[in-house]
Every structure is written in structure tokens, then in C-alpha cells.
Amino acid sequence: MAGQTVCPRCGSRDSFAKGYLPDTCACRVCMSQLDWREIPGCGPDCGPAAEPEATVEQAADSEKSAASEWGLDD
What we know:
- By secondary structure, the protein is of the alpha+beta class.
- About 20% of the residues lie in helices and about 15% in strands.
- The chain has one helix at about 55-70, and strands spanning about 15-20, 25, 35.
């Protein structure tokens, strides 16, 4: 689920700022300095990671499955 980060040490939500070292984020609540890849849902900018864009193939597959669900596939 994109849109939210959670500190793995203290559980605070959306409490990260860029750290002093490259690729690190610091929790404003518990002051933990973590690599951004250690934080669930976090992106390299220490904010919530963006959801991946759906590919054209994935969109076509979901349209086909919806059509077959409703009996519209010929």
C-alpha cells in the first residue's frame, strides 16, 4: 500500500526526513537513522514510494478478465 511509511523501530507513521548520510532516512520520533530500503513503503526521497504504473499488458489482461466475468467475451 503506497502513501504511508512506518518506522520499523518505533512504529511511527510518516515520520521520516532525509538523513545525514547518503541513502538514509531519519525518524523524527525515535531518531533512528535507517537506509531507505529498510523502511516498508519508503522511497529514495524518504517519502512514501509511488505505486508502480500498470503496464499496457496488465491493463489488457484486466479488461479481458472483466469481460469474461460478465460474459462479454466472444
